[in-house]
Amino acid sequence: MRHVALRLLLPLWLLLSLAPAARAQTVATDSLRLALSHALADSSRVLLLLKLASTYRSSKPDSTLELAQQACELARQVSFVKGQGRAQGMIGSALRERGELPKAFANQIQAYQISRQCRDLQGQAYSLNGLGNIRFDLQQYRQALDYYRQSKEIYTRLHLMPWVAGTLTSMGSCYEKLNVLDSALILQSQAAAVLAQTPRPRLASAALALRNMGALQARLGNYPAAFSYYRQALQETGNTNDLRNRAMAQCRMAGLYHTLHQPDSSLLYARLALHTAAQVSYRTTILEASNLLTQLHRVRHNVDSAFYYQSLAVTMQDSLFGPEKFQQLQLLAFSEQQRQQQQREAQELKTTSYQRFALLVALGFILTVALLLGWANRQHRRANHLLNERNQQIEAQRNALNEALTELRAAQAQLVATEKWAFVGELSAGIAHELQNPLAFMKNFADVSVGLLDHDGSPRPQGLEGEIMAGLRKNLREISQHGQRASSIIADMLAHARTGTSQRESTDLNTLVTNNLQLAILGNSEDTHSHPVHLETDLAPDLPSVLAAPQELGRVLLNLFTNALYATRRRQQSSPPDYQPQVQVRTRRMDHEVEIRVRDNGTGMPATVAAQVFEPFFTTKPTGEGTGLGLSLAHDIITKGHGGTLTVETEDGKFTEFTVRLPA
């Protein structure tokens, strides 16, 4: 009966809470529409369209997007550059709130560039704040902080205090996510102080600040204060018809009730949050509310409801953070980094030109003085002698300055290249880390779904229904297995991106080869017992010690031995009974090098495959048996870490031989 009562009260509560705000919004929008009907197709109409679009932003995002696009197109037609930049920024904000993060990022970057070209500070601040919001959605809180700080500085210069409050509360929320709660509390308090001086009606930043302060108080354990801030946020959204912030506040209240073990209240507010967020297609809150509803129904053993909300959460997760969108964001972020780098390079070149001009002016002045001194004192040998010495010193200084300038340019070019590649590596590692979360999410929910199917308490179905259930269980297990495989690929990617090398030391290669060969045999002991492999070792007794990192070099050898054993095992599966698997390991000393050869009579490789074996993610093994990073890492360790070479000779169906050469 309690659940029925909650369902009956929900529509009535929504109707009562939305009615006053809807009327208030109608007055404002009707006034703007009336003014718009009399406006000419010029810059004033562009600004009216943007104001009207802003009134719909938190309640009808589709209308906001449509009006902003109209404003952008009209601004292009009438060459109103400032209006075009602001319209582009509003398009980016609307797309971000709909979950289209790559498109939102691209529009905000374009808006920022346009606003910067026409020196529209307010447009620049708006786009920087929008870029910070996108970074926040992607959980890249430190990058978001950087954008928010830039936006706050501009809004402060323009004395737009409601927007200053919005950036302050967003910065505080970043620090709260980073678990720096003291800084978060200071910033949220500053935002509250600014908002207290803001007359009504206020911007959406007021509800945002109240909601963020509630979240911070909940983190600090002040639950009554947190509820108070959430309720104030809901009241603020009722005054402005801000459905987006209302949905987020309802979701936070549901989460807090869940923390306090009040499932009925948590269920009520989670449903309210999902319903409100769905009205404005705010996918982030839909995802959070769906996850919470999945947990609540799972505890109540409502299998159908839990599965429904879980499916909704999975859909929202893919639409927000799918691999394709991450790739698009990666390319956009890299392009933006290159653009910023080019701007810095241009500024540095300009500075260098100014320095050179100043240097030439100084040199010209000194030379002029020297000539005047020479003309005035040409009758005195001593003066001439001093003047010659002075000229020689000036020439030496000029040569030294030219050399220093040449070295500075070379260092700048090297730093620019280093920074670009460091950014690419950091971005790739960050994205690899971010991908761990959705993969774990997919695997865990697959395991939970299998558990729900296996322990729902009902008898096993028979016939076609039983086959369908068995197929469903099999599909879920395969989803979990492939998620685990993707996680292992990402772990190898992070290992591939790891910087630095181990300490080099004098190493006995024969001992290192023997130890790792034994490890490879032990690691494949089950297969070698069923398919005995003939091992032939020929280790040169006079092999000198080499300077190497034993752990990294051992990793290379272990990979080569394991691959050789695998190749012979694969060939034996399809060969006649008289086939004898064989692996040969040889070491020898050359003029200024030592050589290690690993040869097997396994499956071999075609020439087209052999040309790609050292490329990352390329593998000849079946799906699930390899990530394609082993030989790529081995090649980097030998060539970059030890200054040696790693080559391969092979013939399809006959043999493969890897040769490692290291400087002795």
UniProtKB/TrEMBL annotation:
- Tell me the ranges holding the TPR repeats: 207-240
Q: Where are the transmembrane segments?
A: 357-376
CDD domains per the record?
HisKA
Q: Which residues form a coiled coil?
A: 377-414
Question: Which reaction is this enzyme known to catalyze?
Answer: ATP + protein L-histidine = ADP + protein N-phospho-L-histidine
Name the InterPro entries for this protein: HATPase_C_sf, HATPase_dom, His_kinase_dom, HisK_dim/P_dom, HisK_dim/P_sf, Sig_transdc_His_kin-like_C, TPR-like_helical_dom_sf, TPR_rpt
EC no. given is 2.7.13.3
Domain Histidine kinase residue range list:
430-664
Name the keywords, alphabetized.
Coiled coil, Membrane, Phosphoprotein, Signal, TPR repeat, Transmembrane, Transmembrane helix
Q: Which residues form the signal peptide?
A: 1-24
Any one Pfam family match given in the protein's UniProt record, by short name: HisKA
| Name this polypeptide is given | histidine kinase
Q: What is the organism field in this record?
A: Hymenobacter negativus
